[in-house]
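Predict the structure of OpgC domain-containing protein.
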Amino acid sequence: MPARRGRSIEVDFFRGVVLIVIVLDHIPGSVLSHLMLHSYALCDSAEVFVCLGGYASAAAYDAVLDKRGRSAARKRFFRRGYEIYRAYLLTALLTLLSGAVLALFHLNRPMVELTGWPSFSAAPLRETFDIAVLRQQPYLSSVLPMYVLFPLTVPFMVPLARRSAGAALAVSLVVWLAARPLAALLRIDDVGDWAFNPFAWQLMFVLGILCRVRPASDGFVGSGAGRWLTRVALATAVGFAIVKLFILTQPLPGHLKQNLSVERVINFIAIAWLAVWLVRNGFIAQLAQRLPGIVNVGQLGLVCFVGGTVISLVVDTATPRALHGVAHGLAALAGDLVAIVAVLMLARIWRDWSGRLSRRPAVRGADV
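Done. Here is the predicted structure for OpgC domain-containing protein.
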C-alpha cells in the first residue's frame, strides 16, 4: 500500500471488514460466514487482521517518532502492549461472564462449553492464574495474547526494516521456521491453550510492517513484472480456492493454523498482492468512502473486537434453534444482520462518546 503520512483509509476499511467478519465467524449458525475468506482459501481473517496490525503499528511508530522522538515511540509501544493485555483480561472476563449467565439460565449449552465457564467454575483460582499468565485463553480472547507481545517488537523491527528489509524478513523467517520448538520450549505448544503460536504468527505481523516501511512502488505494480506477479497471484488464489472447495472435504488439523503453515502463508500472500492491486487502482478507497461506518470500525479496532465478542455470543444465543429449513436460514441471516449493525453502532456510539469527552473542558482541582 502507498506509504503515506497519517491514517490510511484503505487499511482502516480492511480492518473494519475483518473485525465484522471475526464476529460473524464466531457465530456458529452464521449464514454469511460461509461466504467469507476461510470458505475459499486456506487462510482466513486472522492473517489479514495480524498483517494489518503490523502495518498500522509501523505507521503509528513513525508518527510518534516524527513528533516526539525515538524514546517516546518506544514507550508508546511498551504501553500499547499493556493496553492490549488489559483488553485481553476484559475479553476473557466478558467471555466467562457470558458463559456463567448462559449456564445459569440453561441456554446455549454448546456455547457454555466454548466460553470455558465449566472448567473455570470447577477451579476458579487456578484458572484465574492461568488466564493472567496467558496459559489459558477463553474462547474469543485467544487472538489477543500474541498481540500483547507484538507491540514490544515494533521499536526494534521497524528501524531494522528501514535499514534492511531483507534482514528484517530473514529474522522473521528464522523465528517462523523455529516456531514449534520455541513454543514447546516455553510450553505454549498445546493448541488447546494457545490457539495462535506467536513465534509463527509474528511473520504476518512483520509482513505488515514491511508493507508499510518498504511498499511496492506504483511504477513496479504497473510494470511488466508487476502485471506478471498479479497474474501469478490470481492463478494461485484460484488454485487454492479450487482445492478448498472441491478437494479438501474435511476440516484441516488445528495445528496448521496455530503454527501458520506454509500453505496459509502462500495463499495469504497471493490474496494480499491482489488487494494491493485493488488499492493501487483506487477501488478500495472509493468503496471506503461510500461505507464510512466500516472505516469507523477499523479505526476503533480494539473496542470493536472486545465488544464483538459479546455481540457474537448474544446473537448466537438469541437465534432460534427449533426452526428448520428456510425458516432457520432466514433467522440465522437476520442474526448476522443484527450482529453487523451492532458492531457498526458500537463504533458510532464509542466515537461520539469519546469525541464529547475530548471536547469537554478540563476540570480544575478546586472545582472537584
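The chain has one domain: 9-353.
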